[in-house]
Amino acid sequence: MTVVTSHRLGEPCWVDYLTSDVPRARAFYSELFGWTAEESRSGEYVTFRRDGRAVAGLGPRLGDVGADAWLTYLLVDDAEQSLRAATAAGAHVLVPAEPVGSEGTLAVIADPGGAVVGMWDPVDHRGFDLVAEIGAASWHELYARSYPAQVDFYTRVFGWGTHVLGDTADFRYVTFGDPEAPAGGVFDAGGMLPPGVPSHWVVYFGVADAAAASQRVTDLGGTVVRDPWDSEFGRFAQVTDPLGGLFFLHETGSGSAA
């Protein structure tokens, strides 16, 4: 079990699902991943746990954040200062820095390419406790329409170190973080995304069997966008939940979850 006790600045530290229908999303993800749901004192936010460890959150949409979607948060040590740096570099503020009780401070921006991403300045809540495990986030990826500008933005604002994985017309991609243990990647998706679909972040979740998990998504009212496929990086499937939220399944090995 890959238990996380600290996170690196500028890299993903938390994910949550912002939705118009919290009960329906709660039921779907609890059933799909075997998560237990722990309500906040106010009852407005849910923390999902696997084996007692925090893996993701769920709550109502925030501010100007649009459709139901998973949101990746990058770790910062000063939300206000990070917001100033982000706006100076061309980002648009969707949710200003906002304290969340004693947990920490959040903010949400759209980067210069239009992709929505969160910032988390922690106090009591450091972030997810499991990574790259069944029932936990295994990868974070930015589908970028303005690839050079967006890579430059995150490098300058969040201090990313990047490593080129591919640099051809067919596959332009960088990973970020420790080259030996990268936290995620940026894909030049300008030639792949359908018209009208903006740049966006996506989250991959670990499952024991991508085909079985895809069938489970369908059984629970979701949709398989792309059937499981094999690549040099693993076996994946692209799916949506019943509310239209997009995510990926990443086959990570055997276990009790789908």
Task: Explain the overall architecture.
InterPro entries: Anthracycline_SecMetBiosynth, Glyas_Bleomycin-R_OHBP_Dase, Glyas_Fos-R_dOase_dom, VOC_core. This is VOC family protein. It comes from Leifsonia virtsii. Residues 11-122, 135-252 form the VOC domain. With 258 residues, the protein is an alpha+beta fold. It has two domains: 12-122, 2,3-Dihydroxybiphenyl 1,2-Dioxygenase, domain 1, CATH 3.10.180; 137-251, 2,3-Dihydroxybiphenyl 1,2-Dioxygenase, domain 1 (Roll). The chain has four helices and 16 strands. Strands 2-3-4-1-5-8-7-6 form an eight-stranded mixed beta sheet, with helices on one face. Strands 10-11-12-9-13-16-15-14 form an eight-stranded mixed beta sheet, with helices on one face. Strand 2 (36-39) and strand 3 form a beta hairpin. The relative contact order is 0.17.
Major sheet:
8 strands, mixed
- Determine the N-to-C terminus distance: 17 Å
Number of strands: 16
What's the overall average pLDDT, rounded?
A: 92
Q: Do you know the CATH topology of the largest domain?
A: 2,3-Dihydroxybiphenyl 1,2-Dioxygenase, domain 1
Order of helices and strands: EHEEEEHEEEEHEEEEHEEE
DSSP helix count?
4
Structural class: alpha+beta
Radius of gyration: 17 Å
Label the CATH architecture of the largest domain.
Roll
Indicate the percent of residues in helices. 10-25%
- CATH first level of the largest domain: Alpha Beta
Provide the CATH superfamily of the largest domain: 2,3-Dihydroxybiphenyl 1,2-Dioxygenase, domain 1
Task: Give the strand line-up of the largest sheet.
Answer: 2-3-4-1-5-8-7-6
Give the overall silhouette.
globular
Percent strand: 35-45%
> What count of structural domains?
2
Low-confidence stretches: none
